[in-house]
UniProtKB/TrEMBL annotation:
HAMAP family the UniProt entry points to: FBPase_class1 (MF_01855)
Name of encoding gene: fbp
This protein's name: Fructose-1,6-bisphosphatase class 1
Entry's family note: Belongs to the FBPase class 1 family.
Subcellular location: Cytoplasm
Length: 338
């Protein structure tokens, strides 16, 4: 392996700490804890098929989904790592019914931040050796420091996020994150357990030619989405259409590819799922924050994802996210068909 002289994630965090709004070092330590948990989960994901970590765990989560063993494993590792380091005052996860209150040793709830996460995204891909991910979202608490966290600390609109990111366990493992100053991607060198800055200042191409949607649900899509899909498939040489259809079924992986190549990811409401499938707090808000920081856009078809006021922890929303021009075009079709 050629030696990598790029900046490491550790060095990057220290150098950029000064740019953070609050410079107590707490956010840096929190991101450090996440990168550590991600390494542990990565190690386990890589062994899937060798150890007893594939398949269903036997339970369903509050969303009514079958939990996979790796969903449970990743959830436990992230929660344990964050609790042991007493680095956050609360955690909400796709896999937990309710939020977790973390009290420090002196029961003072001294930390500023709450973390919301999708510990393992793309569960259905684990057993077939296809990329999965982890998504995280960080907010500053609203309730007073010293008091236990409250539900309102978690139900903040996405535009209040302090940081957000994802880990993609792919052909290589990457951690991609933003603290509101652009998006940077770090690749893990598994031999030495260090992440290197491999993708500085990531940007969505303004336009693209990839559309990602589960077309198996076509008959249940709203008319605006059907019309937009037709537009994607129509011949138009100047506009590089027909577009290419690519759908992995892991939001993180579909998003990551589209951010690098230019594209749009859509999970609309359907006749069966009136708010779509993806969770606002664990999936849409963090990905929307990253998308916007990379010059892309994220919408529920009509409005900016980051401006939605959440009312429930496990709330779902329709999601259209990717290259700016493509999301705007999809919104145009949605508005026309309304
Ligand atoms: P999760 O594995 O965290 O429950 O998320 C799965 C999500 C998302 O990653 C993916 O894009 C989408 O569900 C796929 O859904 P369909 O199988 O309905 O297309
Ligand atoms: Mn799930
Ligand atoms: Mn998910
Ligand atoms: Mn998940």
């Amino acid at each position: 392996m050629t030696p990598n002289t790029n900046q490491t994630l550790g060095e990057f965090i220290i150098e950029h700490e000064k740019a953070f709004k609050y410079t107590s070092g707490e956010l840096s330590r929190l991101i450090n804890s996440i990168r550590l948990a991600a390494k542990v989960v990565n190690h386990e994901v890589n062994k899937a098929g060798l150890v007893d970590i594939t398949g269903k765990a036997g339970d369903t989560n509050i969303q009514g989904e079958d939990q996979q063993k790796l969903d449970v494993y990743a959830n436990n590792r992230f929660i344990e790592t964050l609790i042991n380091r007493e680095i956050v005052c609360g955690i909400a996860s796709e896999e937990n019914d309710d939020y977790i209150t973390i009290q420090g040793q002196n029961k003072a709830h001294d930390n500023k931040y709450v973390v919301l996460m999708d510990p393992l995204d793309g569960s259905s891909n684990i057993d077939v050796n296809v990329s999965v991910g982890t998504i995280f979202s960080i907010y500053r608490r609203k309730s007073p420091i010293g008091e236990p966290v409250e539900i309102d600390d978690f139900l903040q609109p996405g535009n209040q996020q302090v940081a957000a990111g994802y880990i993609i366990y792919g052909t290589s493992t990457m951690l991609v994150y933003t603290t509101g100053h652009g998006v940077n991607g770090f690749t893990l060198n598994p031999a030495i357990g260090t992440y290197y800055l491999s993708h500085p200042d990531m940007k969505f191409p303004d336009d693209g030619n990839i559309y990602s949607i589960n077309e198996g649900n076509y008959v249940h899509f709203p008319q605006g989405v059907k019309d937009y899909i037709k537009y994607c498939q129509e011949e138009c040489e100047e506009e590089n259409r027909p577009y290419t259809s690519r759908y992995i079924g892991s939001l993180v992986s579909d998003f990551h590819r589209n951010m690098i190549k230019g594209g749009i990811y859509m999970y609309p409401n359907t006749a069966k799922a009136k708010n779509g499938k993806l969770r606002l707090l664990y999936e849409c808000n963090p990905m929307a924050f990253i998308a916007e920081q990379a010059g892309g856009e994220a919408s529920d078809g009509y409005q900016r994802i980051l401006d939605i006021n959440p009312t429930e922890l496990h709330q779902r929303v329709p999601f259209f996210c990717g290259s700016k021009k493509m999301v705007e075009k999809a919104e145009e079709f949605m508005a026309k068909a309304k």
